[in-house]
Amino acid sequence: MNGAPLAIALIHYPVYDRNHRTVVSAITNLDLHDIARASRTFGVDRYYIVTPAVEQQRLAEKIIGHWQVGYGATYNPKRKAALELVTVKETLADAVHDFESEFGDPVKLVATGAGAAATTTFSGFRDELRSSVTPHLLLFGTGWGLADEIMAAADVILPPLKGPGAYNHLSVRSAAAIILDRLFGE
Amino acid sequence: MNGAPLAIALIHYPVYDRNHRTVVSAITNLDLHDIARASRTFGVDRYYIVTPAVEQQRLAEKIIGHWQVGYGATYNPKRKAALELVTVKETLADAVHDFESEFGDPVKLVATGAGAAATTTFSGFRDELRSSVTPHLLLFGTGWGLADEIMAAADVILPPLKGPGAYNHLSVRSAAAIILDRLFGE
Prior knowledge:
- 2 copies of one chain form a homodimer.
- By secondary structure, chain A is an alpha/beta fold.
- Chain A has one domain (6-184): 3-Layer(aba) Sandwich (Alpha/beta knot).
- The first copy, chain A, contains 8 helices and 8 strands, in the order E-E-E-H-E-H-H-H-E-H-E-H-E-H-E-H.
- A 6-stranded parallel sheet of chain A has the order 5-4-1-7-6-8, with helices on both faces.
- Chains A and B meet through helix 1, helix 4 and helix 8 of A and helix 1, helix 4 and helix 8 of B.
């Protein structure tokens, strides 16, 4: 991909639950697969799974490992190619540090959310990525979305995804796919 | 939604497995949720789950029912609103018949696939839907994609989704989200 290096971080803490409490959300198997496959399709450089829960980190690593070595890797090499992008990190700061160590610093943080107050448009940000060499880290929240402290730390906030009506409750898997397509689709 | 009525059919038979054998694929819980939520977001009129396997029909109906009545409906009304669009049918012909009985006939079949030989472009088809009143049924294949007999019966074939590289192995959930966004996104 020409332009700015781009990574995704799927945040499991701090995110909100349905009652707007800050929680650690659980790893979802298909979040790993779907977003890894979309990342590979649209030329994303890294995909970070961020969770402070050690047993959840182990679960994510087990899923990734299953398709990286032995029978899983042979059975489905396309999944292997996608999951090669995935790295598990304890905190967002760890993901930023890892991305900076390989692609340069400082990384710009790009937040997404169904109720986000946008600082740019998709076409504006698409152009910005093409003309930039600054690494950008695209943040997706699980559960009921990214905590305010993450939104406040973002350098860029993308607009919410909308259809013709008021309902915009997409899964994080669908939202990530659509946003990557808007930024990098043919 | 102005323009043509539009429904989705998620086909579990006839589809290919990894060895290009025609099979009945299994229902995936998140296929129901993710595509229902994207359908509700982008103004789709109906979402058909097509499988000839009776125990799989029961499984799909159990998942839908869980969020339609009692605790599930109260716990998450957004899921209820999405899953209200979903109907389980034994065959594609049954789905077509149901859609026609409510929205008029004949329905046009619109196929999708990672290796599809397109008969239109996304922008061309988007314009066509806006200026038409003919019901269109968008077909998505599970497993390794729609069987040739379904591709051959389609009136319209949409282009494969592509990023900057050769890899285009999106999940059906991601593909459906992106295609609905391309056709109906803001």
